[in-house]
Amino acid sequence: MAQSIPGSVHIVDDEPDVRETIALILQGAGFATCEYATPEAFLAVLGDLNGGCIITDVNMPGMSGIELVRILKEKGIGQPVIVISGQAEVAMAVDAMKAGAIEFLEKPLEPKPLQDAVRMAISGAAAVPSPEMDRYALVVSSLTRRQRDVLEGVLEGLPNKLIAYRLGISIRTVEHYRAAIMDKTQAKSLSELVRMGVKAGL
Question: Is residue 100 a contact partner of residue 56, using CB atoms and an 8 Å limit?
Fold first, then answer.
């Protein structure tokens, strides 16, 4: 049986199946969870929070996850926020991270990265500047001008076709640049690449 870990994980997502999946993954690792169908429902219980962290989808009917992150920051809520999104919502995830979220995970969620992200959030490791931040900045600064242009397009959530049109190059060339960026940054996924770009200040 998994050891119980202090602090609840508050899951905010309008899709019941997604909430249930996240809860099961985290409960299996010893985390206590609470679920909310809307950001408004979560905000209604802010006074009862005690440690832990928050996981929110970025794209929901009504209030978005980005708005939720901004409100939490304005209210001085200290619990770290992890945002989740689909690939088509990368730009929204970037906005959420710039608004104060500490991590971005891409759907469909894999158990280990999700558990690791929550563990890091609850331990407070994400709030402490680390050599990783310096490494991200160094790696991004090593990209060529064209590679940075492509990466900026990725962070805006643009498909390869639109990045190619903007830069006046072929889609195949964009694909080559993206492959080179992944190789140079050693990012294992789009979400990791986005995290690097945001934390490096792009």
Answer: no
What architecture is domain 131-199? Orthogonal Bundle (1.10)
Q: Where are the alpha helices (DSSP H) in 49-101?
A: 65-74, 90-99
State the pTM of this model.
0.79
CATH topology assigned to domain 5-127: Rossmann fold (3.40.50)
Strands (E), the chain: 5-12, 31-36, 53-57, 81-85, 103-106
Residue 41's CB is within 10 A of a number of other CB atoms, namely 11
- Reported as a single tens digit per residue, the pLDDT across 84-108 is 987 667 888 888 888 888 888 988 8
DSSP 8-class letter at 200: T
Three-class DSSP category at 167: helix
